[in-house]
Amino acid sequence: MGTEMTFEDLKKYDGTGPDNRILVAIKGNIYDVSKARNFYGPGGSYAAFAGRDASRGLATFKVSVSDNEYDDLSDLTPKEIESLTKWETKFKEKYNLVGKLVKLNPDT
Predict the structure, then answer these.
(1) What CA–CA distance (Å, rounded) separates 106 from 17?
(2) Measuring CA to CA, how many Å separate 98 from each of 5, 78, 80?
(3) Cα separation of 55 and 69, whole Å?
(4) pLDDT of residue 107
(5) pLDDT score at 66
(6) What's the pLDDT tens digit per position in 83-102?
(7) 25: which residues sit within 8 A by CB, 6+ positions away?
(8) Other C-beta atoms within 10 Å of 8: how many?
(9) Residue 82 and residue 85: Cα distance in Å, rounded?
(10) DSSP state, 96?
């Protein structure tokens, strides 16, 4: 697949770094959304997701992200899970899968 990244690694890819790359994680998979800079880049409608795990925000239709490094999404409703699955399918179709989001300390 690609590179394993921690949450700290992912944060570097918010579109403001030297390479302007924008990565977004959904359900543990990291996608390169750089070609949609107008949406995910600085000032874009979904800029809050850049360099972050967007799973909860996409599931709940809220353009915000959790400050928690790891979100197991266990409290999502069936409708929210269905919404997230649809978003995940869209990302798989539109963007390159570039890596996997991993916990820094898997025991926490």
Answers:
(1) 28
(2) 10, 28, 25
(3) 12
(4) 54
(5) 58
(6) 999 999 999 999 999 999 99
(7) 10, 31, 52, 53, 54, 55, 101
(8) 9
(9) 5
(10) E
Query: How many Å apart are CA 64 and CA 37, to the nearest integer?
Result: 17
Report d(CA 32, CA 25) in Å as an integer: 9
User: How big is the CA angle at 100 (ends 64 and 35), to the nearest 5 degrees?
Assistant: 60
Alpha carbons 52 and 79: distance in angstroms, whole number: 22
Pairing of strands 52-53, 23-26: parallel
Q: What is the DSSP letter of 4?
A: E
Is this model's pTM higher than 0.85 or not?
A: yes
Mean confidence (pLDDT) of the chain: 89
CB 39 within 8 Å of CB 45:
yes
- Lookup result for tokens 């928690």: 68
Q: Which two tokens stand for residue 30?
A: 């990291």
